[in-house]
Amino acid sequence: MSINAVTIIGGGNLGKAIAEGLISSDIVKPRQITVTKRNASTIDTLKKKGVIVTSDNKTAVKKADIIFLCVKPFQAKDIAKEISKSLNSKQIIVSVISGVSIEELEHSLGKNITVFRAMPNTAISIRESMTCISYKNASAGNIKTVETIFNALGKTITIDEKLMDASTILGACGTGFAMRYIRANMQAGIEIGFDAVTASLIAAQTVKGAADLLIKNNSHPEQEIDKVTTPKGVTITGLNQMEHHGLSSSVIKGITEAYKKMNN
Length: 264
Ligand SMILES: NC(=O)c1ccc[n+]([C@@H]2O[C@H](COP(=O)([O-])OP(=O)(O)OC[C@H]3O[C@@H](n4cnc5c(N)ncnc54)[C@H](OP(=O)(O)O)[C@@H]3O)[C@@H](O)[C@H]2O)c1
Description:
By secondary structure, the chain is an alpha/beta fold. It has two domains: 6-159, Rossmann fold (3-Layer(aba) Sandwich), CATH 3.40.50.720; 167-262, ProC C-terminal domain-like (ProC C-terminal domain-like fold), CATH 1.10.3730. Helices cover 52% and strands 14% of the residues. It has helices at 13-24, 44-48, 57-62, 76-84, 102-109, 140-151, 164-191, 196-217, 221-228, 234-244, 247-262, and strands spanning 6-9, 33-36, 52-54, 66-69, 92-95, 114-119, 129-135, 154-158. Strand 2, helix 2 (44-48) and strand 3 (52-54) form a beta-alpha-beta unit.
């Protein structure tokens, strides 16, 4: 499917990030993107880049090939009902809404239309998202279209829908968890002599490089740790101190408690 128009319903944190990622990709031009929001004036920055900004959801979805639903979970049902009559069966809905199933969305839409769920993160704005997608009755062509979009905005994997909540925690909340780890590095970096800006650069680029080592070498963290830990050295001393104070344990606890909270 060639993509002539994309509509994003809900130009908040994630909707705006998807628009920004699309703008910097070759997938569509800014004038082919429409972003909706009730208070549309708050996304003037997108308008200045050539994106169509409106609060009229019904009109916004009519000509779109792909429609991203980026509203809060409690708004999903009303939005689906609102746009339903303006949709046709050739269009693709991609919902990034956490905790709302494909079945629930299909029920609220009340018509035969392909629904994908996707769980990206805010790094989609710089085309570095990890996006998990799932679908039920999608055609090979529609799957290819959705994968093409998300592959242009980072990395994409297809998962079983029952893992969508887990992907929300590990992939989407994961951005927040990683930020807190980097901030802790910065705070320590300042204490041992760097100014905040330098500490931030060193911490962020080091974490980015470490992640790239895993992705590009397809290796396990412990293999990379073995390469930097000299016997009786400073790295192993630091690592063991962190573990004595519960580093791995607190990360595991944070992720599993967040997952439990999501299902409450
Ligand atoms: N943030 C993340 O990292 C992330 C990652 C993965 C998934 N998600 C999921 O993405 C969804 C959005 O999250 P978010 O963080 O982007 O929330 P958000 O910043 O609150 O964005 C939601 C947006 O929807 C707009 N909206 C509300 N009602 C609307 C309506 N009737 N028509 C058009 N727009 C409407 C709101 O603007 P107005 O009030 O001005 O209308 C708001 O800007 C959530 O379901 C979340 O679970 C978020």
